[in-house]
Design goal:
Strand 1 (about 50-55) and strand 2 (about 60-65) form a beta hairpin. The protein is extended. The protein is built from 3 helices and 2 strands. The longest helix is centred in the first third of the chain and has 25 residues, at about 5-30. Strands 1-2 form a two-stranded antiparallel ribbon. It starts with 5 loop residues before the first helix and ends with a helix. By secondary structure, it is an alpha+beta fold.
Length: about 90
């Protein structure tokens, strides 16, 4: 941990647990079968560390992702699955 204070470490731990649970929830509901067994480092590398550029156009903001992303088919599959979830 980064701090010598108990409360700060406790909050950091709670945020880490929440992040872990959200990751597992999304993995269960949205990931393709071949990607469900990935470890968190692999998920970060494949789906979050993607080169992109934020574009301002009129009143809209768009995120342009790299077209050379190796896992873009899996990325967009997961994105569509998340968008199709309804509560």
């Amino acid at each position: 941990t980064d701090s010598s204070h108990f409360l700060e470490n406790a909050v950091r731990m709670m945020v880490s647990v929440l992040s872990y649970n959200i990751n597992n929830f999304i993995r269960t509901l949205a990931f393709p079968e071949k990607a469900k067994g990935l470890q968190i480092q692999s998920i970060r590398l494949r789906f979050f560390k993607i080169a992109g550029k934020l574009i301002h156009s009129g009143r809209r903001m768009m995120l342009k992702l790299s077209t050379h992303h190796v896992y873009q088919d899996e990325f967009f599959h997961i994105l569509r699955q998340i968008q199709s979830l309804s509560w």
